[in-house]
Amino acid sequence: MRIGEVARQAGVSTRLVRYYEQQDLLAATRGSNGYREYDEDDVARVQHIASLVQSGIATKLVKELLELEDAAAEARPSCPRAVADMLATELVGIEERIACLSRSRDTIRDYLARTEHAAVLSEHAHDLGARSPVE
Amino acid sequence: MRIGEVARQAGVSTRLVRYYEQQDLLAATRGSNGYREYDEDDVARVQHIASLVQSGIATKLVKELLELEDAAAEARPSCPRAVADMLATELVGIEERIACLSRSRDTIRDYLARTEHAAVLSEHAHDLGARSPVE
DNA sequence: CTAAACTTTGACATCAATGTCAAGGTCAAG
DNA sequence: CTTGACCTTGACATTGATGTCAAAGTTTAG
Q1: A77, B135: Cβ pair inside 8 Å?
Q2: Looking at the structure, do residues A8 and A64 belong to the same domain, yes or no?
Q3: For residues A17 and B119, which has the higher predicted lDDT (pLDDT)?
Q4: In a designed cystine with B20, which of A7, A32, A51, B26 is the match (CB 3.0 to 4.6 A)?
Q5: Which residues, at least 6 apart from A86, have a Cβ–Cβ distance to it below 8 Å?
Q6: What's the pLDDT score for residue A128?
Q7: Nearest to A95 by CA among B11, B37, B55
Q8: How many domains does the structure of chain A reveal?
Q9: Cβ distance of B96 and A121 shorter than 8 Å
Q10: Chains A, B: CB contacts under 8 A, how many?
Q11: pLDDT tens, residue by residue, A86-121
Q12: If you measure CA to C1', which residue is closest to nucleotide D25?
């Protein structure tokens, strides 16, 4: 599949797909004509990247995260102490974001639930499971 | 307390505090000398704003969220259908970010737990409760 | 073959969030 | 009173994530 298709399926612009590649977050094989070629996994990867970036994760960190996932297989990975510290720091940053967003999610949900338009909650029904603890 | 102190306590630059005020996210009383004056609640508000912005929430939306929280008291708020729809849309956006960040959090945790530096997890100990479901 | 739709690279534009610097007022300690 | 630390406003610079446009090659449908 070519760039236009992957962009459409992932819901981003082709510009961004190229940008992600330029930032080393994504690799594409090239056809003999020079066109980038992708598969379904790439669509998922692009979606993942876009989500992370929209969540305020800098592309530099996104790259690290993707590498961690790619290397998820390794049973007992080894990394310099400094890297582990950095990751731990990023981890708390991410945890803080989650807590913060969870709070806002609850705020919106509670608000909507009390308006006369509570119905929109079930329309845009997503995962209206039990309120998860703020973690 | 003045701007330098609130900025220090909230962990942001004074520049940002003024920026937030300019974006109507924050209000300050003014002393007779023209200096902005804040209290502890403002520190919390600034921290909250900064967290939201760092989570990729645009200031325009942050403003909406803060207004919702401020108006949390109203028992049965009324809002135009269009506003409710907009909030519902933002809600799913936020839920997606939470899911995405939760996944990355798990990735980092799992990775660190398998390295020889698993200790950093308890050092930067934060809330190491049971892994919450990805919601 | 031709026209429309796509792709490539590269440059330039934009927008939001921040930093930084300057010129001047305020305040507190010595 | 003077000096250093802090505050004011305002302007300008930067950075990251994007959009947009242009010139040129490619592919595909008719």
Answers
A1: no
A2: yes
A3: A17
A4: B26
A5: none
A6: 45
A7: B55
A8: 2
A9: no
A10: 169
A11: 999 999 999 999 999 999 999 999 999 888 888 887
A12: A33
